[in-house]
Please model this.
Amino acid sequence: MRPSARQNNQLRKVSFEVNVNRYAEGSCLIKMGNTHVLCTASIENGRPTWKRQQGLGGGWVTADYAMLPRATHVRRGRDSNKTDFRAVEIKRLVGRALRSVVDLDVLGERQIFIDCDVLQADGGTRCASITGGFVAMYLACEKLVKCGEMRKNPITHFLAAISVGVHNGNVVIDLDYDEDCHAEVDANFVVADGGALVEVQATGESKPFTGEQMDAMLKLAKDGVAALINLQKQVVEG
Model:
């Protein structure tokens, strides 16, 4: 039995609240159980400096990630002079993931900035950031299409992410903090609609894991992402 009493293939309760920020072109508050992340998408005209210097066309998508001081059990300081290497790793993951489903030529000479702020953390914050960040980005692009500033939405596929792991010898999906702390294997899967993989992060925390376990985790991940993408489509297309 999982600590949360969920079935091994059961996601936590998931919800998307969109347009929660009146200023951002796109915004989404995603809740996956007790993990809550506010995602905003801001669009600015112009290529990034490095693209201009290299004479490269097309737009760009980048991300930032941060946790509020009391997002966890213990208060985290706001020391802006101290590098949070975990946050740096996660924001790069979010940026890579979201860029993978954007046609940068169609985006044109624009930059999309995705800001993911964790309001409350209970495991899976990077996956929630990708899943909610995609919704915010989709809404932002749709807004520009409706305004006539872009001829079509540059997003090529829907995208979501989910954590999967091995806990007490069982392959389980969407680990919360209690499970994540004691998992024998911890993995994150970023998957596009149709089941195409974008990125996989998997670590044997206490011992090596088998190919059979990896196959089982991949199946759970694809099923879980398919459910998340179905919810995303209901939110942005409904």
